[in-house]
Design brief:
Layout (H helix, E strand, L loop, with lengths): L2 H6 L1 E8 L5 H8 L8 E5 L11 E4 L5 E4 L4 E4 L4 H13 L8 E5 L7 H9 L1 H4 L2 E11 L3 H7 L1 H8 L3 E5 L6 H14 L4 E4 L8 H5 L33 E7 L6 H14 L4 E9 L5 E7 L2 E2 L3 E3 L10 E7 L3 H7 L6 E2 L5
Parallel strand pairs: 1-6, 1-7, 2-5, 2-6, 7-8, 8-9
Antiparallel strand pairs: 3-4, 4-5, 10-15, 10-16, 11-12, 11-15, 12-13, 12-14
Helix pairs in contact: 6-7
Length: 342
Amino acid sequence: MSTNDSAAKLPVYLLTGFLGSGKTTLLARLIHQPGFADTAVIVNEFGAVGLDHVLIEKSDDSDIMLLDSGCLCCATNSPLQDCLEDLYYRRLRREIPSFGRVVVETSGLADPGPLVNALMADPSVAAHYRFAGVVTTLDAVHGRDALASFREAATQLALADRIVITKADLASPSDLAAIGAAATQGNPYASLLQSPLPDACAPHDILAGLQTHDIRLQPAQGHDESTQPPGRFAHLFRYGISSHVLRVEQAVGWPQYAAWVDAMQRELGEHLLRVKGILPFDDGHVYAIHGVHHLFSPPQMLGGTIPRPALGTVVVIAQDISASELGRIFPLLKGEMRQEDG
C-alpha cells in the first residue's frame, strides 16, 4: 500500500474508556463543536449517549441521524464492518452528508482488541478506511480503583494510543500525580492529555497527530517525570499486563518478518494484546506494523521523515508473557530487547 493510498482512506478512531470515566460525556460535548462537523460517530444506542435533544433532522433510515453541528450519528447493532461499509456507500450515493473521519464509541466494558482487528484486518473495511488509533478516557478521581478492580479497564488503557485524563477539575494534585503514574505504568507509550472539563478539549486536541505508528518512548510533555514508574520498557501491571520494546538496528527482510509474525502468533496468540512499530525493510522502504492478539495487518508503507527514536522500534504489550519468552522470538528480527531499570 502506498502512502497516498493510505492517506486517501477515511480515518477511524476508537473512543474507549471504562464505565463512568467520562467517555460518553466527552463525546457528547465534542459533537457540538464546529471542528467535529465532518465526523460520523458510531455508538451502540442513542439512549446511552443522550443526544436526542440536539437532533434536528432524521434520515429515512432510523439508524442515521444528523446533528445540529453537522455531525452524523449512527446507532446500530450491526457488526462494525457492516456499519462502516453502509456509511461509506451512503456517503458515496450522497444519501447522507459527506464526512471526513469516523469515531467509534465502544461500551464501557468492551475489550477494544476485536474492534481494532476489524479495522486493521477486514478487507471490506480496509478498502475505504484506515485505523487511526485508540483514545481511552481515564477518570482522575476513580480511575485507579477501576484499573485495580477490572481487567477490562486495564486492557483499554494498555491498547490506547492517547489517554485523556478526565475530571481533572475534581481531583487533588496528589490524585492527578497518582493517576498520571498509573496511566504511564499501564501504557508508557501512549500520549497523555489532561482535560479539566470535557468541553475544554477540542477535536484537534483529542485526535490531531494521533498515528498508530507514532511510538512515544518519553513521558508526555507537561507531565512530571517523577510520576513515572521505574523501568519504562518492561512494566508488570496488574493482571500480568506488561510492556516491552524491541530495537532493530538493520533492515528486515520480508521472509524474516513473516517468520517473526508466525512465531508471535503461534507462541503468544491471545496473550498478545497489541504490537505496533516502525521497521526499515530491505526493499528500501519504511513500514508501520500493527497486530492485536493473533492477527497482524499488512505493513503500511510510510512516507516522510521518521523520527530517529521511533525508527526500528517495536512495542509489544502482552499478558502473562515474560521478557524471557519474548526474548526467544525477538531475535528472528535480528534485533534485541532492551530493558531499562529507570
